[in-house]
Design goal:
Elements (H helix, E strand, L loop, with lengths): L1 E6 L8 E10 L5 E12 L4 E2 L2 E2 L6 H24 L6 H17 L7 H11 L5 H21 L5 H6 L1 H14 L5 H20 L25 H9 L19 E5 L11 E5 H15 L3 H4 L8 E3 L4 E5 L6 E5 L2 H11 L14 H14 L5 E2 L3 E3 L2 E3 L4 E2 H4 L4 H13 L4 H8 L4 H5 L6 H5 L10 H15 L3 H13 L2
Helix pairs in contact: 1-2, 4-6, 9-11, 9-12, 9-14, 14-15
Length: 488
Amino acid sequence: MNVSLKLDSSNNGKEKPLYIRLRGKSVNGKTEETSISTEIKLLPRHFKNNGISKSSPNYSSKIKVVNSILDEIENIIGEINHQGEIPNPTLVKHLYFENRVSKEVVTPNYKSFWNSFEEFYLSKKHNSRGYVKTLLTLKNHLLGFQNHSKRTITFEYITGKTILFQSHFQDYLWSQKNLSNGYINKLFNNLSNFLFWSQQLNYIQQKPKFTKLREVDRDEKIYLKTEEIYKLFSSSKWNYKEKKGFKTNPHITIICESLEGTRSKHFGNELKVTNWELVKDVFLFMSSVGCRYSDIEHFKVRHFDFDSNVQTLTWIQQKTNKSVSVPVTDISGNIFKKYSGGKSLEQRLFPKISQQKFNKHLKLLLKDLKFNRLVSHPKMKGSEIIDNDDKQLWELISSHSGRRSFIKNLIDLGNMDYKTIMKLSGHRSYSEFLKYVSVNQEDLMKGSQLYKLQSRDEQDEMEEIINTISSFDDDKRKLVLQMIRSLK
């Protein structure tokens, strides 16, 4: 959205009113424009290059007023973006005047930092388990910092001495907790959310702005390639089977779950899987439908609207409360049937397993199955780059790699644009979506195919391949297509 100064030339007086002009896309996608009065009047000769000329009387006072309004507009736009929404002129103007009325009418309510944080935490307690956990983590780090520095954390300390607070808190997280810049940025991001909430309730008059720490720009994300997904799906090494022993692996446990549906007898009244089998299937399911682990924990059989005519799975995302529909793949369809068979609509789709245990056993499983592709995942701690050595894939894999695999492998299909993939993944903003887009050396080398001229032999080979595949039945064509995709 564009923000600029505008002098109202339609006014008949010698001095013209000065406005802040807001121009951008409306909710309907059309360009719209609106203005906010600065309550300043200028002669046309004192408005040059879209700004106030220094020759204007009381220049310092006027520029102070304008900058104050521009700063507030910038804060409003930043908060809208922070909430995952797209700012538009009408919304920004509405929030500006709403804040202005609030400042003029309401006197600040006194409440201590810790009492406010507790109230904030309780108001968010029904959010996703993952988000609630991040708030507890923030609270524990703030308490640790308070004990270490022997200084009570107050609103006055954070809002009145923001630079000092951020500097001291960062130093503590670096030196005492050995945290990376990326992790520290997430903590300040959550703290900023709390302070914004506090400002809305008038516990503080203004939310401070924290300086974001520099992070390593990592092009390659941690995910499984299509051929690696096939490799994992094809492995039945640690799947449950009657009379199959697992004594050689101390990490394996058997999970039993009663089936409560009307057809439970048809499925043996009980679901039995190993914990590694469950971890494998859940990861593959996330890689096939693009859901987060917070969705997995809440999935019940009834949450899925399975449309057999168009073959899609539909559910509500926990993080965004947004409905998402994705096509059923061979893998997601297979896993859904395996875990929903014989269950009632109110039963959980997958047996319960904590995210911490899931990540631990996912690493152990992929280590056992030799997912040893070397990947780089450097971090920054202060101004120093750490963890710069290549590591094997299984060492860095986590639950979130499933969603990354879904997005990257859709991109690698080569027949879908980003907007379509964002629709499937449920992303609202392009900037958030790009965090999942991985670019590796193989992707860069694809540029060598630009304007490549085919030889006569290559053309003959292509025609032979096409003719051969065309002669296959559906099952053979499907198998060949999967093999070709795995070679990309």
